[in-house]
Amino acid sequence: MYVYIYIYVYIYMCVCLYIYVYMYIYVYICIYISYMYMCIYIYIYMYIYMCVCVRTDVVAVTPWLAPIVWEGTFNPVLLDSIYKPKKISIAVTVFAVGKYIMFLKNFLETAEQHFFVGFNVHVYVFTDRPKEVPEVKMADGRQLTVRLVPSSKRWQEISARRMELIQKLIDEQLRKNSDYIFCLDVDSKFHDRWGTESLGGLVAVIHPGYYLDNRSKFPYERRSASKAYVADGEGDFYYCGGAFGGILEEVYLLASTCRFNFEEDAKNGIEAAWQEETSCYYFIYLTDCTSCLLTVLSPEYLWQDFKARNPEVKTIRFSGVIKNYADIRPNV
To answer: Which residues bind Mn(2+) (predicted)?
Structure first.
């Protein structure tokens, strides 16, 4: 009887020892693998860090520790070599409604020279004047599609409907053939590289007119009844409405949220002063502090031609042209 007990105890102790040794080895292997991954991560991070220049004359990091993309803070060759093998496709939306068609040729020609050169790019032109869309020679892998939209008597209506059309385009077309989308103003032109350094989950551009100001001067929506309301003391940056983008799902969420806010405000007789810029800002404002997906671009990515370039702005990549709004906007 006692012999059997001793045997059972012996077997039990052997099993426990086996499990202990097995778990020890398993934990050791896990720690070793984690250490190796950490070393690889640090190596890659340091390699990328050594490949770029650090800017000390500008704010290069957001309060939530996301980088702000300036000239001299990225290595274009390294970034392109990462994305080229992926064969990514970039969609671009541009609205050339009414007299804004006059800016389209310059936009398209300069985009061919500077916007994601060497990558697959599909430009979608929304216009009520399809016969006036200029013929611009495009490189291999780049194409243009014209989508007819109705005219409008008020530029605010054109601006508000933009989100609905972007949402519809993603649903009907882009999910099949695009990885990223950028929504850009047609009354602008490219001057320098705009490429893979700008990619991210959601992409926003700091407004050139306010990047040196404190938040008290930002033209946020201050009416508490509005869906785009931002309280005093809130917000870190003011973003442009004329340039934003990202992966399809993030931009789709932005467009649908902005569209909903437009409609809710309209029911209450509220019209935001800066239309989609105000609503875009509000969406990004809710996103920035909670999401590492946000890529923040410096004012280099949407400057204004009438504005003198400040010393810290080493290059202008994309800029709004000088125009007389009374000549091009239907109700100004």
So the answer is: 185, 187
> Domain limits at 20?
1-51
- Whether 32 and 94 share a structural domain: no
Within this chain, do residues 322 and 222 fall inside the same structural domain, yes or no? yes
Of 221, 276, 277, 300, the active-site residue reads 277
Q: Is 277 a catalytic residue?
A: yes
Q: What is the pLDDT of residue 46?
A: 42
Is the same domain home to 46 and 92? no
More confident residue, 29 or 177: 177
Residue 151's pLDDT is 81
Beta strands in 112-238 (DSSP E): 120-127, 142-148, 180-184, 188-190, 202-206
Same domain, 23 and 82: no
Alpha-carbon distance 332 to 324, whole Å? 10
Which is nearest to 105 in space by CA: 64, 57, 137, 79? 137
Q: Are residues 34 and 176 in the same domain?
A: no
Tell which wins on pLDDT, 49 or 116.
116
Task: Give me the torsion for CA of 80, 204, 169, 145, rounded to 10°.
Answer: -50
CA distance 152 to 126: 13
Dist CA 69 CA 296 (whole Å): 6
| Domain identity same for 18 and 65 | no
